[in-house]
Amino acid sequence: MRKPIIAGNWKMNKNIKEALEFVKEVGSRADRDDVEAVICAPFLQLKDLKEATKGTKIKVGAQNMHFETSGAFTGEVSAEMLQEIGMDYVIIGHSERREYFGETDETVNKKVLKALQIGINPILCCGETLEQREAGVTKDHVKTQILAGLKDVTNEDLVKVVIAYEPIWAIGTGKTATAEQANDVISYIREVVASVYGDLANEVRIQYGGSVKPANVAEIMGQSDIDGALVGGASLKADDYVALVNFK
Ligand SMILES: O=C[C@H](O)COP(=O)(O)O
Description:
Blueprint: E1 5-9, H1 16-26, E2 36-40, H2 43-52, E3 58-62, H3 79-84, E4 89-92, H4 95-100, H5 105-118, E5 121-126, H6 130-134, H7 138-149, H8 155-158, E6 162-165, H9 179-197, E7 205-209, H10 214-221, E8 228-231, H11 238-245
Parallel strand pairs: 1-2, 1-8, 2-3, 3-4, 4-5, 5-6, 6-7, 7-8
Helix pairs in contact: 1-2, 1-11, 5-7, 7-9
The structure holds glyceraldehyde-3-phosphate.
Glyceraldehyde-3-phosphate is lined by residues 9, 94, 166, 171-172, 209-212, 230-234.
GO molecular function: triose-phosphate isomerase activity
Subunit structure: Homodimer.
Pathway: Carbohydrate biosynthesis; gluconeogenesis; Carbohydrate degradation; glycolysis; D-glyceraldehyde 3-phosphate from glycerone phosphate: step 1/1
């Protein structure tokens, strides 16, 4: 049984004070045993968030990391540093990182392997642009991203990876992929994973991301292959976050 995972990606929003107020407001209202609730915040908020969420069921994650342990990489943060403050998850290869910060399938793969080595669960992102969808190459594109992202991941580690399918045209646009469109690509991603890992693919959780909100989360989560949501905008408001985690 795949435990649903609702992860908020705050992106570059909220200062420490706002992050702590959020946790106070959400408190024990997001405490389902049957759903994993995660908040992925900017680096500076993570240590305080981890402390503040003690005693709640909320897990905390980063939005990026470097694949090297240490060295001359100005402005970067290593997996070891994230591990030191108890991070549960790290988002890897979000489309905004790929687009604005030059991340490639190769660096994404190095980060996935490093996170697993250090014991932080990676949320591996993939997804197509509007042009790619219109050109009919969505599945080819996500297949390439997933096979490259998971390269050299062992069977044992595979189940620690969460995959997030986020069509770029649906991110922050209010345009959600229909639940069926999302499920179609996500089922295909599971087939791609199965082509390498066999039945283990049935244990991998695959999220949908792109304009998920309280009003559409139940329909999305009702699909056969969708195991969670990676939520940007709607995860910033405490009440919406609570509603997302408490989807029926
Ligand atoms: O990581 C989250 C996604 O980029 C979705 O963002 P959004 O919910 O604001 O569309």
